[in-house]
Specification:
The chain is an all-alpha fold. The protein has one domain (9-77). It contains 3 helices and no strands. It has helices at residues 6-30, 36-46, 65-77. The longest helix is centred in the first third of the chain and has 25 residues, at 6-30. It is globular, with a radius of gyration of 14 Å. The termini are far apart.
């Protein structure tokens, strides 16, 4: 039987909140073809605490979150809103 420590539970809560925020505020606003189901996987990738978004976000340059989402996951929707 595995027991989760507090940090694992905290990371899980933060990840779920991040995914929900990403779906609502980035993915759904990025494309007219977006659905919560289509947005879940890319948002989970963006919110992965082990990657900390480093694979897809430049920590030294600000980028609009919706534009960043569209640039990195354009293959899902084909095009994003202008």
């Amino acid at each position: 039987m595995e027991i989760n420590n507090g940090s694992q539970v905290s990371d899980s809560i933060k990840t779920k909140a991040c995914v929900k925020n990403c779906i609502i505020n980035q993915c759904m606003r990025g494309s007219q073809k977006a659905t919560p189901a289509k947005c879940y996987t890319p948002c989970k990738i963006m919110c992965d605490p082990k990657k900390d978004g480093q694979d897809i976000a430049n920590p030294h340059a600000y980028q609009n979150p919706i534009e960043r989402f569209c640039i990195n996951f354009n293959w899902i929707f084909g095009t994003c809103k202008e």
